[in-house]
């Protein structure tokens, strides 16, 4: 019902709108029958309209179909029968039309339950739609309509063979109405999923009309040229475009055949329209199948593209995580030895190419083994993390800080003079000396650090030499009492 809210805002207005739609389709079918072959039924669009009314209007749709059918049936019957009998027969035939629409709706809803989504979204559903929605309801209801008409004296003069042909055309006409309008409803229901018909190129419309005119006015075999145009339409505009093109093709073919033109003209009118019904069914089935298959392929491609994007993003995240694990020390979060050496080497080369001061600090936590032995390895891990956090908070973003191994850390200070580097080292020592680690047993652990410092010289051709001098200064700091900063030139 939400589909018709712009047209009918209230349920009663919706019911009247659906009834008007049914009447329009019913009189269109009557007019087409009179133009084509008198009383011979051809395309009963009212059958497809009845299905759409029930799908859109729910319970009110039944009243819309019955009322609309009564409006269509009664004037015709009143010209052949007395008014009371015509009214009674029209009411009975309207109930049959409601029953046919109900059976088609049951088939439609059963298909949605069977396929677990709205019907006519995949090509495998097309045969089910044709059999249980388009063909079976007319087969069950139209013999009763012929019986009621014969009991009322309408058509009783026909022979048994003529009655059989009439019944066959009646069933095919109702099936065609359902087969042609059912996809129109599905295309309208899913109109947001299909390309807009306003983008249909003008040359296609001109070519379609030209081919139909040529087939019915000049040379009938040119009708075959309409198939490539329909194929393009099925691929480019899917089910809505195909359904509308099939309606236009059906109307044009019926009118052309009624005037004795075209590919379907046979020895008798019945044979002519039987040929037409076979063509419309085969062409419609093929084109609807192609349109649904094309849509299915597009959905699969979009799903695959989304899956590829998702997996690519997951892979990129995994690679980033692996890169982080390869460069970050897991315990402290500082750069590991390999990553620190890579970055420090780059900064050393930069300082040598464009002469600039540079210093390296090597830090070693004092009595770390004693912390592990007395308080446990968990306390040692807490001490390492606390020292790392203190250094990170003290250093600049341009400084390179990393874990060298065990309880040792290294710092590279680019563009920093020896005096400035010594002040930075003192700040680090003071920050670590201020750390207090509260353990679960209530004890407080204090830590200190010894720092060796080396500044870049002209004869330092590699990072290894600079680190070695800073390491030697560290050992002097250890021997000198710990908790101090020692430079490689001997200054403390």
Automatic annotation (TrEMBL):
Q: Name one Pfam family in it.
A: GGDEF
Q: Does the keyword Membrane apply?
A: yes
Residue ranges constituting the GGDEF domain according to the UniProt record: 356-490
Membrane-spanning regions, if any?
12-30, 36-56, 77-99, 127-152, 164-188, 200-219, 226-251, 271-293
Q: What class of enzyme is it?
A: transferase
Kindly indicate whether the keyword Transmembrane helix belongs to this entry. Answer: yes
List, alphabetically, the PROSITE patterns matched. GGDEF
What keyword terms does UniProt attach to this protein?
Answer: Cell membrane, Membrane, Transmembrane, Transmembrane helix
Catalysed reactions listed for this entry = 2 GTP = 3',3'-c-di-GMP + 2 diphosphate
Q: What is this protein called?
A: diguanylate cyclase
Give the organism's phylogenetic lineage.
Answer: Bacteria, Pseudomonadati, Pseudomonadota, Betaproteobacteria, Neisseriales
